[in-house]
Amino acid sequence: MKILFLVYHGFSEHSGISKKIHYQVKGLKENGYDVRLCYYDFSPEGHRCRFVDGKVIQDYGTGKLAALSQRLSYGCIYDYCIHEGIEFVYARCFQNANPWLIRFFKKLRKAGIHAVTEIPTYPYDAEFKTFYWKMRMELKVDQLFRRSLYQQMDAMVTFSDAHKIFGQRTINISNGVDFDSIPLHSYTPIPNQGGVGGESLHLIGVAEVHPWHAFDRVLTGLGEYRGSRDVYFHVVGGVHPNYMENVFKPIIEKYHLQDKVIFHGTMFGHQLDEVFNQCQFAIGSLGRHRSGITVIKTLKNREYATRGIPFIYSEQDSDFDQQPYVLKAPADESPVDIQQIIDFMEHFSMKPEEIRKTVEHLTWKIQMRQVVDAIVG
Questions:
Q1: Are strands 88-92 and 2-6 parallel, antiparallel or unpaired?
Q2: How far is the C-alpha of 187 from the C-alpha of 355, rounded, in Å?
Q3: Does position 146 have pLDDT exceeding 60, yes or no?
Q4: Mean per-residue pLDDT for 194-213?
């Protein structure tokens, strides 16, 4: 089967989203499918272009007209699908529903080409509350046309438990993992950081930080912790300057946490592995309730489990809610109970390889095969 994996943006080597997409494509290929990756990006000359596997299928040029054209013109993708005999289009939602995209998928349907759209986060409207006005206006357009758009699909792919999204039936899967890209956790204590209460505890949270990660709950928990053990929080990933100034900085200054919170910035590869190996416990999302989300199967939980490090989160995730290496935080604004984490770790004995074994069924190969099987059998 020939599959076109359709993305409405480009890629970054630092982006977890970019890595996820490439792992999904790899998972489809591991099932024996002929998969092409279609995306929008800039050429080396600065032209706005539509690509398939690195080859330009349409050059929109430069300037404002080119920027507008790429949002309205999908004929090149349709022509490619027809010419190459594409049988299945797997699209990733970009909150960009509009009449031109509806027309494109309607043509695919008439041509007998199956199509699904993946909704990475559902519901997603509340996430836009803190975004710039331009993105909020784009969401308004999406809200006008998304039900009509998704009626052109065979189904919606979701990591939630929703049975219908915008009037369309769903295929419920989990975010997957790529075992080849994630090494096992190998804890290596940081020298000279044992406190009076014993060995120091190092927590790690990896994310491009947004309000729904609620790392502020960890900072406040550190501030209110009164035990004798030294506890540190390593934040790996980008933090917007406004969020740093208005959310993190006041908490750090209030509780004098300057030496307890370490901001590493964006890291990947060996550097990221080194920081992971200095830490004993990981922080997942602690504020999905801020976006109105109760149930979600986040990629981060699966990556932590694949590494083999215990972690905490607050949403409902049926793959992990009952696992012995997980702590559940309440889905509210209360500070994280640092003493609870310390007590948990004092009695924790699972090895990284034992944790990793529990997610062997969550490989992208298995998850992506479920999507194709649900549509074509």
A1: parallel
A2: 14
A3: yes
A4: 85
